[in-house]
């Protein structure tokens, strides 16, 4: 059966970086059927919704989805459920991509770009496994109500259930097993919550421990528990002590952004959002739509190209092609390919050329 | 009327560091009446509760409260509402200390201790203003329930109201006004939330803006809004761009811990938790009870001494005494006073001696 990759370039620099990823895809996986769809602000502008049923159906029918970026100041006055970001939340929920994998990798050619001292980040290689379709992002009830005295109350339900916690914990352990970095200080899986103040956090901690004791212990992967505030600290103090960080939707959002910035290479970082085996995964750069540089050919397409690489690896089963892309990106980097964010002056297309030259 | 300072040394290194702060208090404010009370694990052990009514009443009747630290592994199996941390949450709520001020200061003598490159943190001086008695910490309902199929659901209500947001916003603006760092990238007040996914966050953003437009605009203090994940990033990338960060209870917890670690001097950082004018404030080091080094005379008492300094300044109106303490700590540091956390071998008492010698 033909495999299909659905491209959702989105807004801002999204289309530019996806264009380069497409060149790479056409080279390493020429038989892959590429389709295209709308998401985000461009979808809102054309269809009045940031995610149409048509796009969601196309996504569900595809083997994998490669997304650029969504959002921009243009849509800041749009009602929140119609804003570009809502398209992102809806496609995550619609595809039930509950496992968001965000590597925070420090490419050694780029270690000097980090805010941290070189010795703290050189060789950094953390994987954040973030629960992506639950918690305070989607819990009900949520809303804003006006009280009798005219003041207002805003509320969100931060909630998790046993099955939600178990399934994401299994993913974290599978990944930690494949990495095998048990000798690090918090090697294996480090589960993060605020169990000292949140009941959903206490449930998180207890159920991670319960599924570990019942089912995962024999894998030999160590399990650590850490409070989210302590994790935010330790990510700065001793980032190389971490291996796989397992977090809920909200803490995962914040901690993965912090971790990605430590690497000094945020323009380089891909992400994968996975559902159960056999269902399409959603792949996207960690960076946003960067409206300030959109359309200028300055954006770094490596995060998009590495997102393609993750799609090849995790959804399309094309491990060799994925390895080839990784190698090509590394070599291009070693040979000096650098956009502005990395201190160079390559254009987006020249970065693509540099990778293609190594394939 | 005699002013009273209630000492709540608590657990772990709490008593050791408070002891040194007391020596300083006796020197710079000899007429201050010092009282003592129990909180945390020691209170649980003696009274079966981490915060007795007696301690809370004493606290309400005092001019200010100086707390050491609470908690430790000894109490990890205690039910959560009896754990040492519950004592802390209860005294905050009981005193209605809704404004938690957490400076993140990089002492230039210590800039090399930071994980960040020196140029990024030298001279760093951020103030985090965290809402301390609302949000997901205290919102109702919260709980863990067992569902018919035997699985469980944990939930917490993240909520804010207009008055809660307005009062903390006023504090942030007052503080920013006193600092006057408007030329920084996010100078003035930078309000942080996740308004793109949380309704309580959207209310936060709207109500900060509303009280600014209605009442605070004329102060001339700039207002910025930033998403919490972006803030976690920018704190690493460009910490000196911040001035006053205004955040809710949960984001304030995480971001202030991240920011404090950037300074490389977490053993040096004090905090103040304030209620309305005329009511007692609660002062405590940012660091925890450090059970691993408790009782060894190794703990750095400067955060406790600087917490006393904040009490003198904010609750006791003794600005000169406060200035004198600040100067003495700076000089002691310049002359080389360093505990282990700062790369030296001073004992806790020797650090106290070094400060007293300058008073
Ligand atoms: C755009 C926003 C809704 C989103 C999130 O909070 O999940 C983003 O920050 C991310 O991490 O992908
Ligand atoms: C001990 C804990 C309940 C507390 C909090 O989360 O507020 C602590 O982390 C703090 O920041 O003072």
UniProtKB/TrEMBL annotation, chains A, B:
Give the EC number.
1.1.1.85
User: Which residues make up the binding site for substrate?
Assistant: 92, 102, 130, 229
Q: Name one GO molecular function term.
A: 3-isopropylmalate dehydrogenase activity
- Keywords from the UniProt entry: Amino-acid biosynthesis, Branched-chain amino acid biosynthesis, Cytoplasm, Leucine biosynthesis, Magnesium, Manganese, Metal-binding, NAD, Oxidoreductase
Q: Which cofactor does it need?
A: Mg(2+); Mn(2+)
Gene3D superfamilies reported in the protein's UniProt record: Isopropylmalate Dehydrogenase
Q: Which reaction does it catalyse?
A: (2R,3S)-3-isopropylmalate + NAD(+) = 4-methyl-2-oxopentanoate + CO2 + NADH
Q: Which residues bind NAD(+)?
A: 72-85, 288-300
Cofactor detail note: Binds 1 Mg(2+) or Mn(2+) ion per subunit.
Task: Read off the HAMAP family from this record.
Answer: LeuB_type1
- Known function: Catalyzes the oxidation of 3-carboxy-2-hydroxy-4-methylpentanoate (3-isopropylmalate) to 3-carboxy-4-methyl-2-oxopentanoate. The product decarboxylates to 4-methyl-2 oxopentanoate.
Protein's recorded name: 3-isopropylmalate dehydrogenase
Q: What is the lineage of its organism?
A: Bacteria, Pseudomonadati, Pseudomonadota, Alphaproteobacteria, Hyphomonadales
Primary gene name:
leuB
